[in-house]
Specification:
CATH superfamily of the largest domain: CoaB-like
Radius of gyration: 24 Å
Shape: globular
Structural class: alpha/beta
Largest sheet: 8 strands, mixed
Bound molecules: cytidine-5'-monophosphate
Strand order of the largest sheet: 13-12-9-14-17-18-19-20
CATH class of the largest domain: Alpha Beta
CATH topology of the largest domain: Rossmann fold
Number of strands: 20
Number of domains: 2
CATH architecture of the largest domain: 3-Layer(aba) Sandwich
Number of helices: 15
Helix content: 25-40%
Length: about 400
C-alpha cells in the first residue's frame, strides 16, 4: 500500500459533532507518514480545540482569514498551494452550501475557493438535513465541479435520529486518501463486477429473510479493484456502508434484483461474487402483513430456490468473463466444501472463509484461503482491506500471466 511519505494534506475541520473524528484522521495521516496542516472553522472550534489539533498535527492551526501573522507567514493561497490534497472533514451542511455558492468569508472557504488541488468532502449532518433537496443539490453542484464526495454512512446518529448522515470512518477516509496517491494502475482497461452484502427476501411488506453479511469484504474488493485502475460496478444488497469512492454502485434488495442488475452490466472481464445471496425466497409474497392468530399454529413459509448468480455468470458462454471468483463461507469442512463449490459453480477461484469459529460477519478482519484449482493458499487472518488488496494483486498477476501466454503463442 502506498504510504503518505512526503505528502501534505490540508484538513479543513468544520462544525459538527463528527469533528472529534478529525483528530483520528490527523493521527492516521501522520502514522502513514504524511504531514497535516489544519484549518479550523469557528463552528469546528465549538467541538475540538486548536490545542489538541496542533498537538496531534505538530503544526500550527489556522483559524482566521484576517490574521496578520498567518496571512504574512502562510496566507490562504499558500495553504492550499503547499498541499497535495485538501479534505473537508467533517463537512457540515453549512460549509457545503457556502462552497456551492462560492462564498469565501472565512479562511476555510477562501482557501477552498482558491484551491487548485483535489478536494474531498466528508459530509456529516443530521439525516433530514442530508436528505433535504437543498443539500443534495449543493452536493451535486460540487461534484459537477470535480469536488469528490466521501459518502456518509447510515446508522444511529449522535442526535438520536437514525438515517444517513454519519461521517465516514477515519480509516475509510485514510484509505481514500491513500488511493489518491496510488499511481500503480495495472488493471486499467479492465471491467470488474463485484457483488456484496446480503439480500433481503420479503415475506410480506414488513418482514424479510436476510442474513448477517455487512458487505465490508465485498466493498473493500470493489475499492481495491478501482484503486488498481479497473472500471468497477458494485451491486450491493442492503448495507450501512457508504458507496465506495470511484465505483459505480447499484443498490438492490433481493437475489432476483441482484441477478437482473448483474446481467444488465456490460460483460465484465472480472467477476467477484462476495454477496451473501439468500439461497431461498418466499414462494408466495403476502401483499398484506401476515397476521398473528393466537388460535392458529404459526404459519409455515414455503420457500423457493433463488437463482445462483455466481454459477450463472461462470457458466460457459461466449461472453463468460475471463476470471470469475466466488466465496464460500462455511462453518465446517471448509476446504473440502469450498473445493467442491468451485467445481460445481464452475468459477475459476474461490475464497474460502471459515465463519464458524469466530465472528466474521461485520468484523474488520477475515481469514481466507484462495483455492485456484492449481493450489490452495492460506492467507491467514488479516484486515478485509488487506485481503482485498491481495486479491487485486493476484488478479493482476493472473492477467499478466495470460498476456504472456498470448504473446508467446
Ligand atoms: O452456495 P453458497 O451460497 O455457499 O455459494 C457462495 C458463493 O456463491 C458466493 O460467491 C456467493 O456470492 C455466490 N452465490 C450467488 N448466488 C446465490 C448463492 C450464492 O451468487 N444464489
Amino acid at each position: 500500500m502506498t504510504d503518505l511519505k512526503d505528502k501534505k494534506i490540508l484538513l479543513v475541520i468544520s462544525g459538527g459533532i463528527a469533528a472529534y473524528k478529525a483528530l483520528e484522521i490527523i493521527r492516521l495521516i501522520r502514522k502513514a507518514g504524511g504531514t497535516v496542516q489544519c484549518i479550523l472553522t469557528k463552528g469546528g472550534e465549538q467541538f475540538v480545540t486548536p490545542l489538541s489539533i496542533s498537538a496531534l498535527s505538530e503544526n500550527p492551526v489556522y483559524t482566521d482569514l484576517f490574521s496578520l501573522k498567518d496571512e504574512t507567514e502562510m496566507g490562504h493561497l499558500r495553504l492550499s498551494r503547499e498541499s497535495d490534497l485538501v479534505i473537508v472533514a467533517p463537512a457540515s451542511a453549512d460549509i457545503i452550501a457556502k462552497m456551492a455558492c462560492g462564498i469565501s468569508d472565512n479562511l476555510a472557504l477562501a482557501t477552498l475557493l482558491a484551491s487548485n488541488k483535489p478536494i474531498f468532502i466528508a459530509p456529516a449532518m443530521n439525516p433530514v438535513m442530508w436528505e433535504n433537496p437543498v443539500t443534495q443539490d449543493n452536493i451535486a453542484k460540487l461534484q459537477a465541479r470535480g469536488i469528490m464526495q466521501i459518502a456518509p454512512c447510515s446508522g444511529a446518529m449522535a442526535c438520536g435520529e437514525t438515517g444517513t448522515g454519519r461521517m465516514a470512518e477515519p480509516e475509510d477516509i485514510l484509505e481514500i486518501i491513500l488511493e489518491q496517491f496510488h499511481t500503480y494502475k495495472p488493471l486499467s482497461g479492465y471491467k470488474a463486477l463485484v457483488t456484496s452484502g446480503p439480500t433481503y427476501e420479503p415475506l410480506d411488506p414488513v418482514r424479510f429473510i436476510g442474513n448477517r453479511s455487512s458487505g465490508k469484504q465485498g466493498h473493500a474488493i470493489a475499492t481495491a479493484l478501482a484503486a488498481f485502475g479497473a472500471k468497477v460496478t458494485l451491486i450491493t444488497g442492503p448495507v450501512s456502508l457508504p458507496d465506495p469512492f470511484g465505483v459505480e454502485t447499484i443498490h438492490v434488495e433481493t437475489a432476483h434484483e441482484m441477478m437482473l442488475a448483474c446481467l444488465a452490466v456490460r460483460p465484465p472481464d472480472i467477476v467477484v461474487c462476495a454477496a451473501a445471496v439468500s439461497d431461498w425466497a418466499a414462494d408466495i409474497f403476502s401483499s398484506g402483513k401476515i397476521k398473528k392468530d393466537r388460535k392458529q399454529k404459526p404459519p409455515s413459509i414455503a420457500l423457493k430456490e433463488n437463482p445462483d448468480i455466481l454459477a450463472m455468470l461462470a457458466a460457459p458462454s461466449p461472453h463468460r468473463p475471463q476470471l470469475v471468483i466466488g466465496f464460500a463461507a462455511e462453518t465446517e469442512n471448509l476446504l473440502e466444501t469450498a473445493t467442491r463449490k468451485r467445481l460445481e459453480k464452475k468459477c475459476d477461484w474461490i475464497l474460502a472463509n471459515d465463519v464458524g469459529t469466530e465472528k466474521i460477519f461485520g468484523a474488520d478482519e477475515n481469514h481466507v484461503y484462495l483455492i485456484t484449482g492449481k493450489d490452495t493458499e492460506d492467507w491467514g487472518k488479516q484486515s478485509k482491506h488487506l485481503i482485498a488488496q491481495k486479491l487485486a494483486e493476484n488478479i493482476t498477476a493472473y492477467f499478466k500471466s495470460t498476456d504472456i501466454q498470448i504473446a508467446a503463442e
